[in-house]
Design brief:
about 325 residues, alpha+beta, SH3 type barrels, Fumarylacetoacetate hydrolase, domain 2, five-stranded mixed β-sheet, globular
């Protein structure tokens, strides 16, 4: 099932399901109520994740023979992030190819900001600055994106005033369904509720400055609208193998990068096992894959311009679109 959060003409956000190859949205609560059933477990996509298999079964039943009042044309509604404010977010670094290419490009960006770019580049190479750390090979690394900066398909991303180099990141990820603690890698897949596309917009010039402090991307990632997710959440029973998906990034219709989830060095089960050590994972928490190789402009030293439309497509999930604009 492809679950969505949607609104009609600026109304309240509601949970829905995409049908007819994404052309139609079924309002789950209205459809369920018409069958004389309760709507609490279908009130939001988060509630469905929290409700487990029972709630998902109710959603499937609600879609069958849904009444006319519950059906909307896709182009008549606004889609929001599947879970607009996830309880928690973690973004991992699962693709080695991206790291190697991005670190090499980041050196060039940082060197250009110095008075003597050639000398700065030489120093970074000698001191092994901005290279893939050994820690990446030892464990799945992650940071916490700001869950309040989440937007959805079709929303505009306002360019942060302090940045000159805006970029996108072609990622996907999953939401936790079954809660747990100290989850083994072998049991990890049982805790995945469903998948979505993730665009981790990045202010690259600010990011390269802050990463020098070895604490995190900071304001390179933290700005309103910086985390785009959607267009839907594909439940795990429908997307059975997340490790053979083609991933494509386009800017204004031009393909900028292409990769595959088959290239993940760390699998989602690894991420679950690592994050859940002595820590309980809760339904609705989001885990990002990190950027696929060739999945951002930085790797090509190409950056966004105001007005650019970024489209991220992941096989089996759909296409996530956002326009970047300067105020």
């Amino acid at each position: 099932m492809k679950l969505v959060t949607f609104s009609v003409r600026g109304g309240n956000r509601r949970s829905g399901a995409l049908i007819d190859d994404g052309k139609t949205v079924v309002d789950l609560a209205v459809a369920s109520q018409a069958k004389g059933r309760g709507t609490d477990r279908l009130a939001t996509v988060l509630a469905i994740a929290e409700g487990g298999q029972g709630a998902l079964d109710e959603a499937y039943d609600a879609v069958k023979g849904a009444v006319k009042d519950a059906i909307h044309a896709r182009d008549s509604v606004n889609l929001h992030a599947p879970i607009p404010n996830p309880p928690q977010m973690r973004d991992f670094l699962c693709f080695e190819k991206h790291l190697k290419q991005a670190f090499g490009a980041a050196r060039k960006v940082r060197a250009r900001q110095s008075p003597d770019p050639e000398a700065a580049m030489k120093e970074m190479e000698e001191k092994n600055i901005l290279s893939v750390p050994q820690a990446w090979y030892d464990r799945p690394l992650f940071y916490h994106p700001n869950r309040f900066n989440v937007i959805g398909d079709g929303d505009e991303v306002v360019w942060p005033a302090y940045s000159q180099l805006m970029d996108f990141e072609l990622e996907f990820g999953f939401y936790i369904g079954k809660p747990g603690k100290d989850i083994t890698k072998e049991k990890g897949r049982e805790h995945i509720f469903g998948y979505t596309i993730f665009n981790d917009f990045s202010a690259r010039d600010e990011q390269t400055k802050e990463m020098a402090g070895q604490l995190g991307p900071g304001k390179g990632k933290d700005f309103d609208g910086g985390n785009s997710m959607g267009p839907c959440l594909v439940t795990a029973d429908e997307l059975k193998d997340p490790y053979k998906l083609t991933m494509v990034a386009r800017v204004n219709g031009e393909e900028w990068g292409r990769g595959s989830s088959s290239e993940m060095g760390w699998k989602f089960e690894d991420c679950i096992a690592h994050a859940s050590r002595s820590e309980t994972l809760h339904p609705g928490e989001f885990f990002g894959s990190g950027t696929v190789g060739n999945g951002c402009g930085l790797e090509q030293l190409r950056f966004l311009q105001s007005g650019d439309v970024v489209e991220l497509e992941v096989e089996g999930i759909g296409t996530l679109r956002n326009r970047v604009v300067r105020n």
